[in-house]
C-alpha cells in the first residue's frame, strides 16, 4: 500500500534508506531531511508499506515551475514487482494535480540500472550539468 508518510514511519524509513543509500552523507538521512521536507511541503513524502514494514519511499516537490523526485527507494526484497514504478506514478500524479508540467530527477553517474528503470518509465537523459553548493 502506498500512502503519505506518518511520524511513526521514521524508523522504518531510516532503515530503508540506510539499506538503499549506504553512501549518502549524514545530511541526507531520513531523520534529518524528511521533517524539514514535510515542514516545507506537507504530504510530499510517500511510503510503501507491506505487513507493517516500510518497503518503499519517494519524495516529490514542486517549485511552481518544475517537479522533482528523490528518495526513491525499494527494499531489495520487494524489487522487480512494480513497486518502484507505482511510487513514481503516485508522485507524478500528486505533482500533476498541483499543475506541474515537467518532472526532473538526478541519478548518480554510472548507475545504469537506475537509469534504465527511469527510461522504462518514459524519462530521458537530458544534456545538463548538475551543480550544488553546501550552505
TrEMBL record:
- Which is an annotated Pfam family here? Acetyltransf_1
GO-annotated molecular function: acyltransferase activity, transferring groups other than amino-acyl groups
Looking up PROSITE patterns in the UniProt record yields:
GNAT
- Give the residues annotated as coiled coil: none
Which InterPro entries does this one have? Answer: Acyl_CoA_acyltransferase (IPR016181), Bact_Acetyltransf (IPR050832), GNAT_dom (IPR000182)
Keyword check for Ion transport? no
Q: What keywords sit in the KW lines? A: Acyltransferase, Transferase
| Entry annotated with the keyword Oxidoreductase | no
N-acetyltransferase domain sequence ranges: 1-135
Q: What is this protein called?
A: GNAT family acetyltransferase
Amino acid at each position: 500500500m502506498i500512502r503519505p508518510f506518518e511520524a511513526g514511519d521514521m524508523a522504518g524509513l531510516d532503515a530503508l534508506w540506510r539499506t538503499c543509500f549506504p553512501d549518502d552523507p549524514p545530511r541526507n538521512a531520513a531523520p534529518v531531511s524528511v521533517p524539514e521536507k514535510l515542514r516545507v511541503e506537507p504530504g510530499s513524502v510517500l511510503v510503501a508499506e507491506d505487513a507493517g514494514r516500510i518497503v518503499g519511499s519517494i519524495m516529490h516537490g514542486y517549485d511552481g515551475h518544475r517537479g522533482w523526485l528523490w528518495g526513491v527507494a525499494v527494499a531489495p526484497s520487494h524489487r522487480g514487482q512494480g513497486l518502484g514504478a507505482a511510487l513514481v506514478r503516485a508522485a507524478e500524479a500528486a505533482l500533476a494535480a498541483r499543475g506541474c508540467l515537467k518532472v526532473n530527477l538526478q541519478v548518480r553517474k554510472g548507475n545504469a540500472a537506475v537509469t534504465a528503470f527511469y527510461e522504462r518509465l518514459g524519462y530521458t537523459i537530458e544534456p545538463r550539468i548538475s551543480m550544488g553548493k553546501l550552505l
